[in-house]
Amino acid sequence: xxxxxxxxxxxxxxxxxxxxxxxxxxxxxxxxLNAHLQDVGGSFExxxxxxxxxxxxxxxxxxxxxxxxxxxxRLGARDVAGRTLExxxxxxxxxxxxxxxxxxxxxxxxxxxxxxxxxxAAG
Length: 123
Fold this sequence. Notes:
With 123 residues, the chain is α+β, with helices and mostly antiparallel strands. 51% of the residues lie in helices and 20% in strands.
């Protein structure tokens, strides 16, 4: 299992992330997080489609993302009217199929860096 993901998840969630059905999502999540660690902004977005492929289960991927530390990742959606919805409003819009154009997760870089501090201190 990748080091960054291992740092962010508890033992149960880490076991889930290491399941064969989750390895693709876990690997792509690790790559996305590493790609943005040096970003200047306070947050970044990763389209959900970048984390899953045809062989992955969307529901299992969302279950894994829900296991990240509170506040690190927030589900978001943009609709055809240009509105941005987050959290439960985004989930409701996706379930209702109400003109959602993009589904993404917004990651809090400050929280990610804070969680990485012990890893960096260890070397």
